[in-house]
UniProtKB/TrEMBL annotation:
Pfam families: Med21 (PF11221). Transmembrane segments: none annotated. This is Mediator of RNA polymerase II transcription subunit 21. Component of the Mediator complex, a coactivator involved in the regulated transcription of nearly all RNA polymerase II-dependent genes. Mediator functions as a bridge to convey information from gene-specific regulatory proteins to the basal RNA polymerase II transcription machinery. Mediator is recruited to promoters by direct interactions with regulatory proteins and serves as a scaffold for the assembly of a functional preinitiation complex with RNA polymerase II and the general transcription factors. InterPro entries: Med7/Med21-like, Mediator_Med21. Belongs to the Mediator complex subunit 21 family. Its main location: nucleus. Component of the Mediator complex.
Length: 132
């Protein structure tokens, strides 16, 4: 797998992990009173503390995971080809690659033309041999 695909996969995984973490934290977070004059009464204070602790643990796990993922992203980005080149060097490299691509395209076209010529010869020979 090439580096750009690895980068994309890691970014996709990061987005999925972020969404999962938000959902999990939302599920375990204790209820909060929207209006201080209307307290939350359907949850015991012990439950609120337990849920808050669980949310904190999940948050810490998520932060650790995100930190690791960010480091992996940095490594992948730093290892991209040409990342340490100046803009002019990158442009020169792109021109060279474009020239190589054009040369390869011309070579391919010549090979296809030769293959078509040979195929026509084979057909002609086959038709001659079956007609006789």
């Amino acid at each position: 797998m090439d580096r750009v695909s690895q980068l994309q996969d890691l970014i996709d995984k990061t987005v999925q992990d972020f969404a999962t973490a938000l959902l999990e934290i939302q599920n375990v977070a204790p209820p909060v009173a929207v209006d201080p004059s209307i307290p939350v009464t359907f949850v015991a204070p012990e439950q609120v503390q337990t849920q808050a602790n669980a949310a904190n643990v999940l948050t810490q796990q998520f932060v650790t995971s995100m930190k690791t993922t960010a480091q992996q992203l940095d490594v992948l980005i730093d290892n991209l080809p040409g990342i340490n080149l100046t803009e002019l060097e990158q442009l020169a490299r792109m021109r060279a690659l474009d020239e190589e691509s054009c040369a390869a395209d011309e070579e391919l076209e010549r090979a296809v033309a030769e293959a078509n010529r040979l195929m026509a010869e084979v057909r002609t020979s086959f038709e001659r041999s079956t007609a006789a």
